[in-house]
Amino acid sequence: MKDTVKKIKFSFNSPAVLGFTIICFVALILNWLTRGRANHAVFSVYHSSLLSPFTYVRMIGHVFGHANWEHFIGNIMLILVVGPLLEEKYGTSNLIFVMLTTALVTGIVNYIFFPHVQLLGASGVVFAFILLSPFTSVKEGTVPVTLVLVALIYIGGQIYEGLFIQNNVSNLTHILGGIVGAGLGYVMHKNKMNRY
Model pTM? Predict the structure, then answer.
């Protein structure tokens, strides 16, 4: 009698998203073990000397750092839900490019315009993914209503919060992430970036 039990295999289906998640988790643990020193040294961006090599590492590294478990979960859950679909559509290298571009743009803007604010977290990447996702179903010569609604709800909400609500959230990072996601979504939709 043949064994009819099927073996379940796990697949590393989304290398960019899973790799990003693992790095963020390791950064969270390192920050906990060092009592905040890891975030300050590597996983946040703030105005520091341009002579320090860590200043440049932090321009990208800030997207991996999170203040606590709740901050981590809030960002990573959305990335794990939306990211694999985007990676399947646009390819691993393009999604990595979106994440790195978002990190660099938000890091540079924070460094220049908010020298006394320490920025960390993947929320810029989350917003890039949110604004990138409506482009997955764009047909030539059309603007998807979902893109318009997402832009109005998410970006409009961030503008409102930035102007009228005092909280510890970097609304500008969310807006910039959304702009990067929408801009690169348009470029990728026009097949101006290779998919691999």
Answer: 0.86
